[in-house]
Write a structure and sequence with these properties.
Layout: H1 8-14, H2 17-20, H3 23-29, E1 36-40, H4 46-53, E2 57-62, H5 65-73, E3 78-80, E4 92-98, H6 107-117, E5 118-129, H7 135-146, H8 152-156, H9 163-172, E6 175-184, E7 187-188, H10 193-201, H11 203-206, H12 211-229, E8 237-238, E9 241-249
């Protein structure tokens, strides 16, 4: 997940909703007893452990050492590995990924590695940010960071595709797409609100600023977003749109 840095403790406080709201993609995964599953971008292992509890044999990989350490503390079989350097050959019945693919810069390399990791007929089940995801947040960050000469969207390099464009990319890498859908999902944020979200999910972006400017940039972004993403009770909602799919390796 190049460009972003992760702190597992901070993520547990401000990002637990990511795993909590993954019920739909877990239902689509439908893990089966004894299946060998790779959790790509496993994070702190919260979902990996849930999948393993269904009786599957799950291996987690993530590029963040902090996240992998947190996953291992939960008893998850996890290791540090970049998604664009997967070291598996036709070993898995399923590759699963939640809220991770949109951080990966080299999509074609990642998808080639996923296909290589799967047995023929294996499933690739994932949910990621889709077209229009965090649109308001991105516009606010563009406005604030332009003052510092930084293109906020390019600096993060998140990838939020449409269903048509990602289906085409999957097909190019040898997948038969059985299901793909864009799902708007306005997401209530925890008590830390938008400030906590930015400190967690745009940590790497703010670290590109001189330390003396980070607080002002954070405050300016929150103030820009307040009229559109915060209600009159002070409750924040992030403008999430998810892309969910199931594809089969040919």
């Amino acid at each position: 997940m190049s460009g972003q840095t992760w702190n597992a403790t901070q993520y547990a406080l401000n990002g637990r909703f990511v795993a909590d709201l993954a019920g739909g993609v877990i239902d689509l995964l439908d893990p089966r007893y004894g299946e060998h599953i790779l959790d790509l971008g496993c994070g702190d292992g919260a979902l990996t452990a849930k999948i393993a509890a269904a009786g599957a044999k799950v291996k987690g990989v993530d590029s963040s050492a902090s996240m992998v350490e947190a996953a291992q503390k939960q008893g998850v079989d996890a290791e540090v590995m970049s998604a664009d350097a997967l070291e598996f050959n036709h070993e898995f019945d399923v590759v699963f990924s939640n809220a991770a693919l949109h951080w990966m810069r080299n999509q074609d390399t990642v998808l080639a590695g996923v296909h290589r990791a799967l047995k023929t007929g294996g499933r690739f089940v994932a949910e990621m940010g889709g077209h229009g995801n965090i649109a308001a947040i991105q516009v606010a960050l563009l406005a604030v960071f332009s003052k510092y000469g930084i293109d906020a969207v390019h600096a993060e390099h998140n990838y939020f595709p449409t269903p048509a464009s990602y289906e085409s990319r999957l097909q190019h890498h040898g997948f038969d797409v059985h299901y793909i859908e864009l799902i708007p999902r306005p997401t209530p944020l925890p008590e830390s609100g938008m400030r906590g979200w930015l400190e967690t999910f745009r940590r790497g972006l703010f670290e590109q600023l001189p330390e003396a400017h980070r607080k002002d940039a954070l405050n300016d972004t929150v103030q820009l977003l307040k009229p559109v993403l915060c209600d009159d009770l002070g409750k924040w909602t992030a403008d999430y749109v998810r892309l969910r799919f199931l594809a089969v390796a040919l």
